[in-house]
Amino acid sequence: MVTxxxxxxxxxxxxxxxxxxxxNIGYWPGDPGHPSFPISSKAERKFYDGADDELxxxxxxxxxxxxxxxGIHLILFHECGGVTKVDINPVEILLSVPTGWTYxxxxxxxxxxxxxSVPREDD
Length: 123
Known about the structure:
four-stranded antiparallel beta sheet; two-stranded antiparallel sheet
């Protein structure tokens, strides 16, 4: 299974048409809504081609076409319980796996967090 972060990048029609049967695709709010991230699997899918997987290379093409200078982050959840992070930017596709897990005593924070797991005052 795959899921992405939520960034405001409009997905081109060719990408939506190619992947609409395989991915849940988000939309920008408004009238009309534009196809965008986040994306996620509709069903189980294998990623045997690694960094050369068609989904990853198509997403790199999207970032290049829309001239989005940053990357997009995906998480793969494997049926064995493993996790792979996929970082895609206009130049490269990088895959990484955790080297270990640390229990957090119930805290959902993480070392790279800038407040995404911290309750806001209006919550």
